[in-house]
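=== How it folds ===
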Amino acid sequence: MQELRQDPITGRWVVIAPLRSERPKEFVDQGVPDFEIDVRKCPFCPGNEHMTPPEVYAVRPKDTKPDAPGWLIRVVPNKFPAFSMERFPLRESSLFVKRPAFGYHEVIIHSSDHSKDLASMPTEHLVKLVDVYRRRFIHMSSDTGIKHVHLIMNQGRESGASLEHPHSQIFGLPIIPAGIQDELGGSLWFKESRKDCVFCWMLEEERKARERVFFENEHFLALAPFASRFPFEIWVVPKRHSPGFTTIESGEIEGLAMMLSRVISAYNQKLGRPSHNFFIHSSPCDGRDYSYFHWHVEIFPRMFIMGAFEFGTQIMINPTAPERAVEMLMK
């Protein structure tokens, strides 16, 4: 059984998920190039729908059947989940607190094409994908047992992906992660002390300086954050103040799709198609007022391996200044 265990010193939660060790690992053999993997054995390719749990949502023509070829985007429960839908109460023993890791863990298969990353998808397909993100956010947020929804993408061997076929994962969590709590705390402090949203303030200042702005469209600004943790880290921030990703509007969906494509294309062209990650930071869905928060997307390529200093202190050492990163990506 998956478990959430709380560190009695820091209060941070850890997921103990033995099932995750059973995942297929396409990238284990470092001597086999990614493109030589046999797509006939890929559980995310058309014709192999029987290799995944039954789909919970799909974008497909009306004349096609569930769990059969013909789909454009497919959403399935993770076969090796970190979280389970079983609901059990919190259990405590002295300072040691643990609970079953109740929650959602789904896989969003981006397309039926094994080789299409976000940069090579047609805009209209990427718009559909972002809309699927929104729909799954709304679905999980409606569950009263869920406090936070978190979406991630791992692309490539070094990103943490176990399968090559491009996909995202979305989690419905019964807790608010420590990293989100840190952002909430900073946002609330800024709102109370400066009477403004820290993200809105940041957007205004970055647009004036133009030192770290990578790209801008009608609805979003893509920038290298002032205190970037990783080389070539980019944040995509909506210009319209909004706490939660679920409130994204139709025009903004297209704007975000274009931004994701633009950033990943730059990574591919300037950095040699590196493995990369992104995640969406949205306000919690526990019913409290988070009007001071501002949702956003954080993207970064996997350019270096974290060392003992970073793990031990949680202070990142970034060898590429954000100003230089933007300059290199825009050349």
In short: The first strand starts at residue 3 and ends at 6. The chain has six helices and 14 strands.
